[in-house]
Amino acid sequence: MTNSNTIHPERKRRVAQALRLFSIAAWVTGVWLLVLVTRMILDYGLHMDIPTWARYIGQVHGFFYMLYLVATLNLGTKARWEPAKWVVTALAGTIPFLSFFVENWRRKEVTKEFQLDQ
Fold it and tell me: From its phi and psi, is residue 29 left (phi > 0), alpha (psi between -120 and 50) or beta?
């Protein structure tokens, strides 16, 4: 853990910015994943006819997931995460609801470690 005497203000600023981007990306990815799961249940599970535009939901989620991975890489690099934390965080965008929980955990961890609330 880092203490306030060793955290340079510029590093705190960069970590805070990376955390904001990560939080936004995690929420957007999570919401689109839920939309995708709903679309798949309606289409494949309930055999409902879906509009043509809904067939692009998977591609939209995939695009946002790529942005989520970049945001994870950005934050993980600046916060100097260990490999296991990177993997769990990256996979969170592929499991419904998990991105919301992991975003909350990482936000609390990073805020505390870098004392961003002060």
Answer: alpha
